Amino acid sequence: MSLRLSTVILPVDRWHEGGRAKWQRAEELGFHAAYTYDHLSWRTFRDGPWFGALPTLTAAATATGRLRLGTLVTSPNFRHPVTLAKELISLDDISGGRITLGIGAGGNGFDATALGQEPWTPKERADRFGEFVPLLDRLLTEDAVSEQGTHYSADEARNIPGCVQRPRLPFAVAATGPRGLKLAARHGQAWVTTGDPKLYEEGTPEQSVEAVRGQLDKLGAACAGIGRDVAELDKVLLTGFTPDRSRPLESLDAFVDFAGRYQELGFTEIVLHWPIPDSDFAADIDVFETIATEGLGQLA
Q1: Beta strand pairing status for 190-193 and 144-147?
Q2: What are the φ/ψ torsions at residue 102 (nearest 5 degrees)?
Q3: Distance of CA 66 to the CA centre of its chain
């Protein structure tokens, strides 16, 4: 499968003051998809503007016509499968079937305590994720669902007429641990990684590639364990969190070198952050647009 190039647009702009223009420009540049983070706030952006993911994607759906749209990623930190399913079915309908749900177990960021709860341990997050994904799968594929779980339940939850995409919109499951990889193998149409966070500060690009190779091996084993061909899953790399950091956006050649290494591993989609001045995602917008329009051609 040929490599696709996508972008992630953080929801930091008012819609009528630059927000709409970015999503429309992403489509003009030919990106395969444009995603956004599904957080209540995030890291260094906590004390600045930050808008909701699903309303932003709804607006983007009405402002574009071809671009795929989605979250990278939604988590159980402040979502419930029943209400999320209803919103996703509506969003898939409004977009004409262009939605991908990136979904992960979540972490210990601001979302983890914003509702007044104590942050969950890694095991508690994995337990909740293990219930969340299968229940959401059912809610998006069945007209009525009743299920009693430890953490998430549904009582005759109705979701008619279901998704435009059949049997449901695709899941892109972000996971590196054994339980998450099993969920990706069973329920995912794609798998998402940001690399190995342990290497972010002091690792090398070469170590990152080897670490991701190991993640792919584990994904393959998880698929083999249920009799699924790992080739059926798209492999998505969300950039910006490997030791390379922003270097792939310094020039067209730097991007081609970076992307080529992950293409050789079997990745089918590379996701670049839309540049944000004076942030961890600062980059030259002209270079970014050159990469968007010419980068994949250099890899063919």
Answers
A1: unpaired
A2: -80, 130
A3: 18
pLDDT, tens digit (0-9, with 9 covering 90-100), for 55-70 = 999 999 999 999 999 9
Identify residue 239 by its one-letter amino acid code.
Answer: T
- Compute the C-alpha angle 100/290/241, nearest 5°: 55
13-21 long-range contacts, CB within 8 A, separation 24+:
13/49, 14/49, 14/51, 15/51, 15/56, 15/59, 19/51, 19/56, 19/59, 20/59, 20/60, 20/63
What tens digit of pLDDT does each residue of 2-51 get? 899 999 999 999 999 999 999 999 999 999 999 999 999 999 999 999 99
Burial level of 227, CB count in 10 A (0-12/13-18/19+)? exposed
With beta carbons less than 8 A apart as the criterion, state whether 208 and 245 touch.
no
Task: Kindly give, in sequence order, each residue whose CB lies less than 8 Å from that of residue 67, ignoring residues fewer than 6 positions away.
Answer: 23, 26, 27, 31, 33, 34, 60, 98
CA distances from 129 to 173, 183, 246 (A): 11, 9, 30
Would the pLDDT of 1 be above 80?
no
Phi, psi dihedrals of residue 120, rounded to the nearest 5°: -80, 150
| Tokens read off for 13 | 């702009």
> Which amino acid would we find at residue 100?
T
pLDDT tens per residue across span 130-180: 999 999 999 999 999 999 999 999 999 999 999 999 999 999 999 999 999
Please identify which residue in the block is written with the tokens 């997050």: 125
Residues 6+ apart with CB under 8 A from 262: 209, 212, 237, 270
What is the model's pTM?
0.97
